[in-house]
């Protein structure tokens, strides 16, 4: 059974004015869909892999046959990263983390503002296409980092909590070359309740 594209969890225009409707529509219906189509195509030669969740493929790329490993890394990464990105965002969001996540962020980075600066820098400063992340590393520490192309933190044994897509297709229609303006706007649509739930699940 091929994987399916999860519907966008909000209307195309729900992230306005921070992320425009046309960008969201193309990003989900074309880019995300294409990663899924290419992942499904890659797995045609090894259909048993469809029994695994897509994220589990990324957690153990060595278990994927070598002939399709790069395709799974790129297309599977693209599929999983985008699902994760949409689930992280929504209207009426933004603000700051609350509760145990807020305490952990303050402990790891000094303050919420210092964390925000660090993830902004990792996202804006990432050279070329990729993603900025807040993750839990293999030792249980909160870390800010970036990945290139469609690489997933899952492939490094990290548990991702939040991500900012910094591929140009995520912002170019509205922000053109001004990635920093897109990242500044992106903070306004981060659903901290979702990030906190991921943090809680990672620390069970
Ligand atoms: Mn994207």
Structure described in brief:
The chain is mostly helical and 204 residues long. Helices cover 48% and strands 10% of the residues.
Question: Can you describe this structure?
Answer:
The chain is mainly α and 204 residues long. The chain folds into two domains: 21-87, Fe,Mn superoxide dismutase (SOD) domain (Helix Hairpins); 99-202, Iron/manganese superoxide dismutase, C-terminal domain (minor pseudopilin epsh fold), CATH 3.55.40. The chain is 48% helix and 10% strand. It has eight helices and three strands. Strands 2-1-3 form a three-stranded antiparallel beta sheet. A hairpin with a 5-residue loop joins strand 1 (130-136) and strand 2. Helix 1 (21-42) packs antiparallel against helix 3 (66-88). The longest helix has 23 residues, at 66-88. The model has no long low-confidence stretch (mean pLDDT 97). It binds manganese (III) ion (MN3). Manganese (III) ion (MN3) is lined by residues 27, 31, 82, 165, 167, 169-170.
Topology:
Layout (H helix, E strand, L loop, with lengths): L20 H22 L11 H6 L6 H23 L10 H11 L2 H13 L5 E7 L5 E7 L10 E7 L6 H4 L3 H8 L5 H11 L2
Antiparallel strand pairs: 1-2, 1-3
Helix pairs in contact: 1-3, 4-5
Bound molecules: manganese (III) ion.
Manganese (III) ion binds next to helix 1.
Shape annotation: globular
Helices, by number, come to 8
The amount of helix comes to 40-55%
Report the β-strand fraction as a percent range.
5-15%
How do the SSEs run, as a string of H and E? HHHHHEEEHHH
Largest sheet: 3 strands, antiparallel
CATH architectural arrangement of the largest domain: 3-Layer(bab) Sandwich
Strand order of the largest sheet: 2-1-3
Q: What is the radius of gyration computed over CA atoms, rounded to a whole number of angstroms?
A: 17 Å
Number of strands: 3
Q: Which ligands occur here?
A: manganese (III) ion
- Average pLDDT number: 97
What is the top-level CATH class of the largest domain?
Alpha Beta
**Structural class by helix and strand composition:** mainly alpha
State the CATH superfamily name of the largest domain.
Iron/manganese superoxide dismutase, C-terminal domain
CATH topology of the largest domain: minor pseudopilin epsh fold
Q: What's the number of domains?
A: 2
Poorly predicted ranges (pLDDT <50, ≥5 residues)?
none
Q: Cα distance, first to last residue? A: 31 Å
């Amino acid at each position: 059974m091929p994987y399916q594209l999860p519907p966008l969890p909000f209307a195309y225009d729900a992230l306005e004015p921070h992320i425009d409707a046309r960008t969201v529509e193309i990003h989900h219906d074309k880019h995300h869909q294409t990663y899924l189509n290419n992942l499904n195509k890659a797995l045609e030669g090894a259909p048993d892999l469809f029994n695994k969740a897509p994220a589990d493929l990324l957690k153990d790329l060595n278990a994927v046959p070598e002939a399709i490993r790069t395709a799974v890394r790129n297309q599977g990464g693209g599929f999983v990263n985008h699902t994760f990105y949409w689930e992280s965002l929504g209207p009426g969001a933004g603000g700051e983390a609350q509760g145990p996540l807020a305490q952990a962020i303050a402990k790891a980075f000094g303050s919420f503002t210092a964390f925000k600066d660090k993830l902004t820098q990792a996202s804006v400063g990432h050279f070329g296409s990729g993603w900025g992340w807040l993750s839990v590393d293999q030792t249980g520490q909160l870390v800010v980092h970036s990945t290139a192309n469609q690489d997933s933190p899952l492939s490094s044994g990290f548990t991702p909590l939040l991500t900012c897509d910094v591929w140009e297709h995520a912002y170019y229609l509205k922000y053109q070359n001004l990635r920093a303006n897109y990242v500044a706007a992106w903070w306004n649509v981060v659903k901290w309740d979702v990030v906190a739930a991921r943090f809680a699940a990672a620390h069970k």
